From TrEMBL:
Record: residues binding Mg(2+): E153, N155, E322
Organism per entry: Stephania yunnanensis
Cofactor dependence: Mg(2+)
The name this protein goes by in its record: Glutathione synthetase
GO cellular component term, pick one: cytosol
Residues covered by the Glutathione synthase substrate-binding domain: 232-275
SUPFAM superfamilies recorded: Glutathione synthetase ATP-binding domain-like, PreATP-grasp domain
């Protein structure tokens, strides 16, 4: 650990006095706690990891202490969750809107095009999804200058970390129960995180609505799953399928189509999946569409490209992808935009351009692979939402727990799995 810990500036007033030794002690305790409570991920360094259970595990990267976050914004984010759930549901029913909004993207992005093909097939046979289950996560950053809560994106497929985020909250509560007095922090300020329980309950409720006691819940994970037609499946939960890498051959596309054609409840259905794509989020943010769907923000007009070329650090260029590590920033973005402009290329339709958000920077102690690192960091808050509907009856529509991710402020991307961020929790102020 570097010595800066003694003279760092932090958002916690009492941190000035934190002794090097105390931090080391807390880190040690946190690492032991993580191993004992399953706050772990597969260790890429071990070849057998992921194949042999219990082999090749390492603690998940975490922030040592929870991140200060204003209670009012926290509440606002929680209150938005059911509204976004409802929005996704309504958009998913507007097949024409999805097809039209993505028609230009379809020409230049094969992945989106394949998803749209499945969607068209469902429209052709007039397939109705009567029971609809959405497990979403809306991500935000708190803009430092305006203090506004700004949405980064809305995830409708494979919303990650409902499990580990709960554990990090527990870890932080545990550490504050033991060291809170000395740190001037109170574990009661860390909100309970029930994401994993509520996600499980939502899946179980969907299964119940399906109303066949012999049916099972199938969870689609990465590394191909081909044998999907043998069972009566009530709910198919996709924890994979959001990136082209998950479809290495035609058989995966065929499987996705079969699932979509089946009577199983899909989480997400192809319409929910498409409704969550970045291009659709951009469409929804256009003023007139927004009025229709009652939502705000983002941008898309022709001057904006010139503006982004002039001020590349004020924008983020995002492809139609999920999972982190895909965005283009700064000079790279400028180069790409200049090239497109020269060529007059259509490729831009595969991307959205978004104003860059600059959240407040504060010192964080981050632990990755047993190594402690203190740095200036920024955070992104995700609020999980669950939605279940059977025909006209909304059975479930609620926010359910949160994910806080913290990353060094010099890093552009934010994914934990992608190696940019650490798991964190919230300290309400
Ligand atoms: P993905 O679906 O791959 O997670 P995101 O839109 O969440 O895509 O972008 C990945 C990361 O890039 C985010 O977690 C965040 O750290 C950063 N990011 C995305 N959009 C912005 C933005 N407008 N301003 C600042 N950072 C952003
Ligand atoms: Mg995403
Ligand atoms: Mg994201």
């Amino acid at each position: 650990m570097d010595d800066q810990i003694n003279n760092s500036e932090t958002s916690y007033s009492s941190w000035d006095g934190i002794l090097h030794k105390l931090v080391q002690k807390i880190v040690y305790e946190a690492l032991v706690w993580s191993s004992l409570h399953g706050l772990v991920v597969g260790d890429k360094a071990d070849q057998r990891s992921g194949e042999v259970p219990g082999v090749g595990l390492v603690h998940a990267p975490f922030a040592l202490l929870p991140k200060s976050f204003p209670r009012t914004h926290w509440q606002q984010a929680c209150e938005l969750a059911p509204i976004f759930n409802e929005l996704v549901d309504r958009v998913s029913l507007d097949g024409k809107f999805l097809q039209e909004s993505l028609s230009r993207t379809k020409k230049v992005d094969t992945f989106t095009s394949r998803l749209l093909d499945i969607h068209s097939k469902m429209l052709e046979i007039n397939k109705k999804e009567e029971i609809r289950l959405g497990l979403h996560r809306s991500d935000y950053m708190l803009d430092a200058q305006t203090k506004d809560l700004l949405q980064i994106e809305l995830n409708t497929i494979s919303s990650s970390f409902p499990g580990l985020s709960c554990l990090v909250g527990k870890l932080h509560k545990y550490l504050l129960d033991h060291y809170g007095n000395r740190l001037g922090l109170d574990s009661a300020q860390v909100p309970e995180n029930t994401a994993v329980i509520q996600y499980a309950e939502a899946l179980a409720s969907a299964w119940k609505e399906f109303n066949d006691s012999r049916a099972v819940i199938m969870i689609v994970v990465q590394k191909d799953e081909r044998n999907i037609c043998d069972q009566v499946v009530a709910v198919v939960y996709f924890r994979a399928g959001y990136t082209p890498n998950d479809y290495p051959s035609e058989s995966e596309w065929h499987a996705r189509l079969l699932v979509e054609q089946s009577s199983a409840i899909k989480c997400p259905s192809i319409s929910y999946h498409l409704a969550g794509t970045k291009k659709i989020q951009q469409e929804l943010a256009r003023a007139n569409v927004l009025e229709r769907q009652e939502l705000y923000d983002f941008l898309d007009n022709s001057n904006v490209i010139d503006n982004a070329i002039e001020r590349p650090d004020s924008y983020v260029l995002k492809p139609q992808r999920e999972g982190g590590g895909n965005n283009i920033y700064g000079d790279d973005m400028k180069e790409v935009l200049l090239k497109w402009k020269r060529k007059g290329s259509d490729e831009l339709s595969a991307y959205i351009l978004m104003q860059r958000i600059f959240p407040a920077v504060s010192r964080s102690i981050m632990v990755r692979n047993g190594v402690v690192h203190q740095d200036n960091a920024i955070s992104e808050l995700g609020i999980y939402g669950a939605y279940l509907r059977n025909k006209e009856k909304v059975i479930l529509n609620d926010h359910c727990g949160y994910l806080m991710r913290t990353k060094v402020s010099s890093s552009n991307e934010g994914g934990v799995a992608a190696g940019f961020a650490v798991l964190d929790s919230v300290y309400l102020t």
